[in-house]
Predict the 3D structure of the following.
Amino acid sequence: MKLSLGNLLFFWPQQQVHDFYDHAKTSIADTLYLGESVCSKRRELKLNDWLELGKDISQQGKQVVLSSLALLEAKSELAVLKKVCDNGEFLVEANDFAAVHLLSSQHIPFVAGASLNVYNQHDLQYLYKKGMQRWVMPVELSKDWLSDMIEGCKELGIHKKFEIEVYGFGHLPLAYGARCFTARSENRPKDDCNLCCINYPQGRHIDSQEGEELFLMNGIQTLSGKAQNLINDLPHMQGLVDMVRINPHSLESLTWLTLFKQNMQGKAPVSTKDYCNGYWHKIPGMSLVG
Amino acid sequence: MELLAPAGSLAALKAAVDEGADAVYLGFKDDTNARHFAGLNFNDRQLNQGVQYAHDHNAHVHVAINTFAHPNRAQVWFDGVKHAVDIGANVLIASNIAVLEYAATHFPQLELHLSVQASATSSAAINFFKPFGIKRVVLPRVLSFQQVANLKQDTDLDLEVFAFGSLCIMAEGRCYLSSYMTGESPNTVGACSPAKYVRWNDTEQGLESRLNNVLIDRFQEDEKAGYPTLCKGRFNVDGKITHALEEPTSLNTLELLPKLYKLGVCSLKIEGRQRSPAYTRQVTRVWRQAIDSVMKNPDTFHTQDSWNQQLAQLSEGSQTTLGAYARQWQ
């Protein structure tokens, strides 16, 4: 199994992004996802900056994939998405069917991102015919669901025709909203948000009134309050999963790449107290097995 | 401009048709239906009666098979499509690629509407689904009026919008908050914050609502306790107890009606298949009057106070809002 590093879901200042990638580009990740998938107003790095960064990283022998916006509303966002899809150099992770359309209508291969509603082998077959090279499983699905899909793919003769990637570590994207939750939490309207999410580099916590960690607000996105950690589930992914993704929320997240690599066969398990892994085990996502 | 009313039961269907709905939408009693709640929806006998009743009164029936087919029993969804055809449904509302492809291949005459659960918010996303032969797109409630207007220019497909009812602040079909807490989501089982996980506890600190044991809200005696849909809970954000995601308000677009009409929106959808037949009756009655009035003369249309009063009584939290439609976003 290969390891990937997800694109930054949080909004960080430009220098912090560059510092992060100075480390990330020499990490053991096989694939790096780059770019903005949450909010089009976040422009500390513009598309050209991401492309420059991508060139630099790909010279290290790593695969670079450009992640695209998950929720498109404005025409201007569609125009940016077109530029991402037409970049001509890097594979694109389509996080909305708009991107799948823009890419497939030009016969450009793509990665089908986790926010696309793909729940069965028939969906996979349709997207495979459209040029899907890799499928990232929706975060709410389990090992059993994945196994059923793979069985279905075998029946359809599309097993192993594309890679399968699973989110292994990090806060899980759970929802995309009409409003900016972070701006709202500061009593700012969305269209005058002052890009205040830059003040919450690891998201803003939403806890229950009893202090239970529930969610993280990250602009228009709601993330899981706990980070998911499937490190001890890696041995059971063999034969099902081709790539496991680490979603960074800090520079320290990079150390999990090494820890994951060491435990691929289950030889170096790690305590996952305070994390969750429920989705993989077909129970509530916030739960922890093991 | 069509008035499309919710039919969570045969009684609700009849109420909607009696009050002048042009069409009703409904679903089967299984997880192909994004309103798969205990005590709701139609068995075979009720389906046949309902379709007959609607057609006898010149109303159309839209069948929603709008969840996502499970890999080990996709045939259930495909059989659902066939069932919809067999009972004489006028329209299939679907969101899943597998379901749309099956319907387009096997029943090319069946009119297809792209469900709101497909989250198609742009012309490019609509174009992705176009090869299935869809005629109409149900737009997610995340778009502003101007964004709806832009889409109208950029697609030749018909547009249906939500006009009234419970307000989903997340892009529909893309919210896993419910499965994060309970293991069950709209996409996988057809229910958000399922009732079997709900508990109410009377405590010294107030009436508590819990979902799978997580405290969603706490109500004082003078407060109206709402169903613990988890995005409408009161949570702690850095010491402040607040509706961190969503206030418990409802969507009401009455005052936008002339603009929606002039824009050429083809259908107004009333949310609420989970609500009572009395709700369906009253809300359909008000919207029938409003739509008749706007179609007579959109320039002299004005919202009658009595309409808003009647609708406010039916609303969650008794407050209504224009939702995202009111935003100035382009």
